[in-house]
Amino acid sequence: MIRRPTILDVAARAGVSKSTVSLVLQGSKQVRPETREAVEKAMAEIGYVYNRAAANLRSASVGLVGLVINDLRNPFFTEFATSLQMALAAEGYATVIANSDEDAELQAKLVGSMIEHGVSALVISPAYGAASDTFDQLARTGLPVLQVLRKMDERTSIFPFASFDYASGSAKATRHLLEQGAASVAFVGGLPGRAITRERKSGWREVLKAEGIEEIALHGKSSRAFGMQAADQLMADYPDVDAALCFNDLVALGLMAGFARAERPVGSGFHVVGFDDIEEAAQSWPQLSSVACDISGFARDTAARLLHWMVEGQRPEPEFRSPVRLISRASSLGPTE
Amino acid sequence: MIRRPTILDVAARAGVSKSTVSLVLQGSKQVRPETREAVEKAMAEIGYVYNRAAANLRSASVGLVGLVINDLRNPFFTEFATSLQMALAAEGYATVIANSDEDAELQAKLVGSMIEHGVSALVISPAYGAASDTFDQLARTGLPVLQVLRKMDERTSIFPFASFDYASGSAKATRHLLEQGAASVAFVGGLPGRAITRERKSGWREVLKAEGIEEIALHGKSSRAFGMQAADQLMADYPDVDAALCFNDLVALGLMAGFARAERPVGSGFHVVGFDDIEEAAQSWPQLSSVACDISGFARDTAARLLHWMVEGQRPEPEFRSPVRLISRASSLGPTE
DNA sequence: CATAACTTTTGGATCGTTCCAATTCCAGCA
DNA sequence: TGCTGGAATTGGAACGATCCAAAAGTTATG
């Protein structure tokens, strides 16, 4: 196979210098239109493909953004990743998506690989685990890093953090459940001790405290499977509980499936509200009420924009919270028996 | 901000030449262990990070694989993408994942961008649309390209294609539904005219033909929403149909939700089998029978391996089909009223 | 018509690595 | 001691683009 043509070949063909070709490639407006056309014609004729590695070597800025997600299989994160990719594509950035699968070690490797590939910024929803040295190392590179949706650690905030205003969302949902007639609202799902669990519980806790209601929480993995299991546990151990605020929609869907299995379908007698409002929430039966985080809007308007600023050297606020809203559907609206 | 250290800085610090540092970086075994150690120590001390752009410029091979997916939001593809990424990571490749969102134009851009970034191979599940010129262009670059899960076009097979043996899977599922007592099995979902729809219908059609049963098919988008809509249509227009083979699990889940909404829960009186066996199938209520495509196994054992061969210059068979198996669960096992 | 002012084009240096041929090192042997 | 040959190390050229200062070309001005 013959070697790929370079700008020198293009230049020779078009009868100009390599510098001119370079200017055309960069879309400089100081080349004469006719010259530009000639160069473009030459490129097409010899099948020139731009060599970004060479360009990057000289010019540092790459237009490549790394995106490291802790669990890309979770639809919530998938939605975020794809939306962010599109938003960034519109601004001319290419995006590298990687899935750390909650593995801190793999995450460190992925981050390293991305830096090697010369990303000009990094968006990360971190995996849990002792990765604080990864972060220190990252900080030392001076790369713009935006932490999203999950905070590595309560105290540290080396990097700006963008997420949703979960606390007021959970307060809103809890109040709604009480208004619908619930006497006792359990919190289901979320691993204990994690920042995000604390956030999503905090509003619930506040409202319950204000109303003088006992706090009942079942913690566990944020999966459907745990939701089903929690349903059984609720029915067996807490017969008085007549509503649940779930850590996320997956748990809520599992919980509803568990109640359905026990022939006690959610809707009348038991109310459920989830978190995230994933697509499926509107398509389950009964339809699931959920605290909606407009994740694609967040990706587009918050994350992409913050990142853009950061790449341009601005320093955004250390913490940014997007508002959430409660979507009430059948799972929290039926009559209370 | 000071400039990033290079191998020259490392060399100076370690008291060796840049060439030696380069050898260490490449893991050459012809450097003395003590020298290697000294170099590694120096790298750690000054916080050296490898500049892959520079390396690529000189050495061509990059160890970067591009993965273009038509719909990354679909859990089936998400699973494939993440599994492939991990399998490739184990072989030392970095993976760039991109989502074309069924947009042929965007797909062309993404492919172009990946080539520019110097991927050494491309895995693509193509978007539909007039992108055949994209493919021609790709073919001209001589890059190893593996087409997966979806074929661009019935006739063309410029690139090797790997997918599942859908035809025998749908035959198996249809036979199973008949054995469970179904009198009439409808096919639900899948856009008409597409290769994959044809494949997933072909086994069903064969079995029905052999049994002399009328073919009833409702085509549409492969989404939950369509499944719900199809449930209404089935109940209204085809009261005799008592089983459905769905194009995929999303449609099947939507269909089941639709029946549930009409207070005719699937399980007794109506049987459903889906396709893909996504994680959710086992967690829905009733649990959904499905033609299981072991997508992560496929990614790991088929796609990753084929790709590896191709990168090494081998030419695999033009078409490869992985076997599928039927998982029967409650949605196709209850009594027929 | 000469000169200034501006636009367009150009050659050489440069980015940080790998490759290659050449050099240095060193143990073993006569 | 001097020589040999393999192992270890080295310096310079190369990769393909961008950047920059300077040259060439063009138009406007007095």
UniProtKB/TrEMBL annotation, chains A, B:
Keywords tagged on the record: DNA-binding, Transcription, Transcription regulation
Domain HTH lacI-type: 5-59
GO molecular function: DNA-binding transcription factor activity; transcription cis-regulatory region binding
Entry-linked Gene3D superfamilies: 3.40.50.2300, lambda repressor-like DNA-binding domains
SUPFAM superfamilies: lambda repressor-like DNA-binding domains (SSF47413), Periplasmic binding protein-like I (SSF53822)
Name used for this protein in its record: LacI family transcriptional regulator
UniProt cross-references to Pfam families, sorted A to Z: LacI (PF00356), Peripla_BP_1 (PF00532)
